[in-house]
Amino acid sequence: MSKSILVTGGTKGIGRAIIERFAAEGFDIFTCARNEADLASLKTFLEEKHSGIKVLAIQADLSKKADVTRFVNEVKTIGIPDVLVNNTGVFIPGTIHDESEGNFELMMETNLYSAYYLTRGFAQEMIARKSGHIFSIGSVAGLTAYPNGGSYAVSKWAMLGMTKCLREELKPHQIKVTSILAGATYTSSWEGVDLPIERFMKSEDVAESVWAAYNLSPQSVVEEIVIRPQLGDI
User: Fold this and answer.
1) Nearest Cα to 224, choosing from 213, 232, 215?
2) Annotated Gene Ontology MF terms (predicted)?
3) Which of 24, 32, 128, 190 is least surrounded, with the fewest CB atoms within 10 Å of its CB?
């Protein structure tokens, strides 16, 4: 029986790199994003490149609880994923004391609440099955405070805390939980920045780290992976 992976925000950047890495190993794919055209393009690409895998690509805005619930229910009509990657995120720079009204709510709903509700959507089935691996795509902004991080940093500190709690709760049930704390990775969020691409990490490197962590024996788990550009944070 084929293994499957669910990656939120799977059409670009780190999410897409993870999907392509696991699809190359024969995993069926569940993913979502806000742009329906991007999802259709990804689905076509994967099915043409990797014959035999199944791809479910659903339009959803995971900052909205109703969309998270709908996405979970659609995935469940097919099955429970073996790997769950909470990758959806949004970054709006600013400072806590004077950022635009609503930034805090948007980033918490997108970066944290979506992962909370999605994980709860599959946790009981994973517990009953006694297997699964949950990855949270966090950030070094969840380890180190920095100027202009604002509510994004708050959401990533909270994500790390939630992931640590999940690790303790789920380890008796043979479910692995891993935090990926990534530094500046060249994705669409950084387009237009006056820095050479070589200064950033590659999305494929993050994906390779996820793949490596997944492939440990049942006796071991990587709890946290911190990945930074070779020359340090940007």
Assistant:
1) 213
2) oxidoreductase activity
3) 128
